[in-house]
Design a protein that fits this description.
The chain has 8 helices and 13 strands. It is α+β, with helices and mostly antiparallel strands and 356 residues long. The protein has 2 domains: 137 residues, Aminopeptidase; 157 residues, Aminopeptidase (3-Layer(aba) Sandwich). An 8-stranded mixed sheet has the order 1-2-3-4-5-12-6-11, sandwiched between helices. Strands 7-8-9-10-13 form a 5-stranded antiparallel sheet, with helices on both faces. A hairpin with a 5-residue loop joins strand 8 and strand 9. The radius of gyration is 20 Å and the shape is globular. The termini are close together. The N terminus is likely disordered. It binds coenzyme A.
Length: 356
């Protein structure tokens, strides 16, 4: 899956996708594949044991996510600092997933020591199975841990004849290769953009339709959003929209745009949690509706630097974002194993929870 997670915004940390490296980041991992860490015990050569991830694993999961991402991006791209110096913000991932998809996350453990070697988050939906972050401890990479973690989700997909979907970083070739070897095929390329929303708001006039964008907060709206996504994208994610609107874990805002007849033209969810300042998921009929929703959601994050993914083919929207001050920070590919549902309109995928 995609390179996720945000480092907590603050004076000494920047967003994971920000361009400025952390001044406090420590070069604690050696470069290259043969690296070791003084504090990490040796890993057993036996195959890992799989079990459900437990609430008692959340602290260790946050450590593992942070450590594997910092190690991978530092050793390959010299960009480990983008994930911040602390693992604390990564607790949001297991916490959100435990609430959203209880019992679906998997842990891979060392059969001898019981230590956590890898984690994988799975989001089964009626139309598909979405995969979330997969991460393997640096000292256990290249031994089939990720492959083992993915096997149950792929078996479930085969049994129930559902496609598997995910969004993976195009900078992270190990991740891309993992899915490519398993048969996943990329179908949509997204550019990750970020911008620091000025305290006085975005420059220029609001785009057409921005004044009609409104916030919804009642879970009763969830089936309506889900029906719109099903009609335009062929995906049923009622569970996700109910979760955002209940807003009990994380910090979510859900924006909708309707036309004069009250029909939905699109919606966009935004995460305002300090551990993950991000826009998405969202679906719109067209780029005009997307610009209106984006403008409104960005305006609500003045002073922050949210990240959002825009389809590369939405060239007009991308240029509108540049005009607002957006910068490119990453590239992601939506990939699928199995048939891709016919899609119309435009989507904003997200890292939390992964959309696929
Ligand atoms: C991506 C990641 C999860 C892979 O985990 P892993 O446990 O090392 O992966 P595995 O050993 O199970 O399998 C890797 C597969 O990719 C293949 N692979 C890796 N690099 C490759 C390349 N450049 N070209 C072709 N195949 C490649 C391996 O050969 C292996 O396939 P095989 O089993 O058919 O031989 C791991 O590198 C990681 O944790 N990275 C940091 C976190 C991250 O970026 N996660 C993904 C984004 S959220």
């Amino acid at each position: 899956m995609h390179a996720p997670a945000p480092a907590r915004l603050g004076r000494q940390q920047t967003h994971l996708l920000s361009r400025r490296p952390l001044q406090t980041a420590q070069p604690i991992w050696r470069h290259g594949h043969q690296r070791t860490h003084r504090l990490i015990p040796p890993v057993s050569s036996l195959p890992p044991t799989l079990r459900p991830l437990l609430a008692s694993d959340h602290a260790a999961t946050a450590q593992l996510l942070h450590r594997s991402l910092v190690d991978w991006y530092q050793s390959r791209l010299n960009q480990g600092a983008r994930f911040g110096a602390s693992a604390d913000p990564f607790r949001l991932f297991p916490e959100v997933y435990a609430a959203l998809d209880p019992g679906e996350a998997l842990a891979a453990c060392d059969p001898t020591s019981g230590d956590l070697l890898g984690v994988c988050f799975v989001h089964p939906r009626p139309t598909h199975i979405a995969l979330g972050i997969v991460a393997t401890a640096p000292e256990a990479q290249g031994r089939g841990v990720a492959r083992a973690l993915l096997a149950p989700a792929l078996a479930l997909a085969r049994r129930t004849q559902r496609p598997v979907r995910l969004v993976s970083s195009l900078l992270n070739l190990d991740s891309f290769s993992l899915y490519s070897r398993l048969g996943f095929v990329p179908h949509t390329i997204y550019q990750d953009l970020t911008l620091t929303v000025p305290a006085a708001g975005l420059p220029g006039s609001p785009p057409p339709g921005a004044a009609r964008v409104r916030l919804v907060t009642d879970p009763v709206e969830a089936p309506r959003l889900a029906a719109f996504e099903l009609a335009w994208q062929g995906l049923d994610r009622t569970t996700d929209y109910t979760f955002f609107l209940r807003n009990s874990v994380g910090d979510w805002r859900t924006w909708v745009l309707e036309n004069a007849a009250g029909e939905l033209e699109g919606f966009l969810v935004a995460s305002h949690h300090p551990s993950c300042v991000m826009l998405g998921p969202g679906v719109t009929r067209d780029e005009t509706a997307a610009a209106a929703l984006l403008w409104r959601a960005l305006d609500a994050q003045r002073g922050a630097s949210p990240v959002f993914l825009v389809p590369c083919t939405a060239a007009g929207l991308v240029h509108q974002c540049y005009a607002w001050g957006a910068r490119n920070v990453e590239l992601h590919a939506a990939q699928a194993l199995g048939p891709v549902a016919p899609a119309r309109g435009l989507t904003f995928p997200t890292f939390l929870p992964e959309t696929g």
